[in-house]
Amino acid sequence: MPKLFQMMRGYSKEQFGKDVVAGVIVAIIALPLSIALALASGVSPEQGIYTAIVAGFVIALLGGSSVQISGPTAAFATIVAGIVATKGMNGLITATILAGLILILMGVFKFGALIKFIPYTIVTGFTSGIAVTIVIGQVKDFLGLTFTHAPIETMEKLKECAETIGTINVTALLVGLVALAILIVWPKINAKIPPSLIAVIVTIVLVKGLKLEVNTIGSLYEISNKLPTPALPQIGLPLVKEVLPDAFTIAILAAIESLLSCVVSDGMVGDQHDPNTELIAQGAGNIASGLFGGIPATGAIARTAANVKNGGRTPVAGMVHAVVLLLVLVVLMPYAALIPMPTIAAVLFMVAYNMCGWREVVHLVKTAPKSDIFVLLITFVLTVVFDLVVAIEIGLVLAAILFLKRMSDVADVKSWEYVETPQDGFTVVPKGTLVYEIEGPMFFAASEKFMRVSVDKNTRVVILRMRSVPAMDISAFRKLEEVYAECKKKHITLLLSHVAEQPRKMMEKSGFVEKVGEENFCANIQQALSRAETLCQKQERRK
């Protein structure tokens, strides 16, 4: 059930007032951000507002978090810009709707908990990489450069900036520096009024009043204050196939970012979000955003934190934020044409700085194992040089391989030495018995280690102690069957001690328990040693 319906029980007028105030403040913060992120994504300014209105309202209405604020975020900027440049708006809308459907399926099949299996190093690496790509993408407007080409890729943009550095507009740079200074200093003066709003107002007055030669939104883009209206894209099978990889990227990134935001906000308000409900809501929000001409949306950590700090405690605040933005779109959107482009660049510089988490990166580099640092750096470099899809794919593969190597390193088979008499608490191993203790998960990367079971002509019983084996895969199980076959061939009895639940179920399902004999599965090592002694004595008597 969405959080909104749960929280309506006992909802008070006092809390409604707090939610309204928080929603208005968040809308003021979201306005310049939505415009800036839309421009960074290669779409028109109003499309960023459409996204915040439509997706923000739908996700708040249906979401699994009490305070989540959703809308366009910096994480999508480079992805969306690439889709728009190569596949057009129709491709972007199709990818956004498909991503929404994927998110809904993820929620329905309860994939919310699986997001935690994406390593923190990969999340940190691509987040920092996205921040760098945003900065590189805004250098042109911050310096007022005149490009001779229209580069799409990040490295192409960087090269173009270097080649056209001679076209720098000093006036644009000064306006950008003024905006940046306000964004840095203003929070120390007044924490309640958003610094981005002050920076926009001051630089509009500066550029307009002094008639400075600086590009504004209105000089580069057509501004519309029309209400968002639904329209179906022209969807065909070839286009679906073409944008499906992009849709998966958007869905995975939306899931990661929205659920991370939920976790952060849970800690701030002492609540517990429902990850699967949140994924379904994110899916519905993205479908609605695509149908109304918006861009991909997800939970926004900064706007969610602002909501909490200003008293928002229910999804009503997120819905109010969307309604306020709708009113702003109708009434004030024409004035957005006056915003200088260097100001937009400065706002995005701050967004990139806040999302890059450089302190966390430095901390990880100082404290994490070398393999984790390697994955982080590879993910970061691939995000900047290529794109997010390549970075996540290769990052996950590397992380999985390195994890398997670690597990393989800790997995081992150790033999117990024969002890004549019990001293200092040692356990007596009966004559003619070998005990091998298996440590760590038994899986394909470590399966060869489980063949280190060597016997001699005096061996009558082999005990495999498996108390430290939490899980087993089919590769390791095949090796275990080989060990049993070798023991049977040499007339040696195989005993298994302390078999955990998962390996035991696999053995039962395959008929291995019946083959070995239920009596040869012992609850603990003492029981196994006792049975081994009995078996050895029987064989001695037969002789």
Number of E-type strands: 7
Q: Largest sheet, described in full?
A: 5 strands, mixed
Strand percent estimate: 5-15%
How helix-rich are the residues, as a percent range? 55-70%
Radius of gyration: 31 Å
From N to C, what is the helix and strand string?
HHHEHHHHHHHHEHHHHHHEEEHEHHEH
**Distance from first to last alpha carbon:** 72 Å
Mean pLDDT: 88
Segments where pLDDT lies below 50 for 5+ residues?
418-424
Largest beta sheet: strand ordering: 3-4-5-6-7
* Discrete helix count: 21
Shape: elongated
Secondary-structure-based class equals mainly alpha
Provide structural commentary.
It is a single chain. The chain has 543 residues and is mostly helical. Helix content is 64%, strand content 6%. It contains 21 helices and seven strands. The protein has a five-stranded mixed sheet. The protein has a two-stranded antiparallel ribbon with strand order 1-2. Helix 18 links the parallel strand 5 (461-468) and strand 6 (493-497). Helix 2 crosses helix 14 (341-356), helix 3 runs antiparallel to helix 11 and helix 5 packs across helix 15. The protein is elongated, with a radius of gyration of 31 Å. Mean pLDDT is 88; it is low at 418-424.
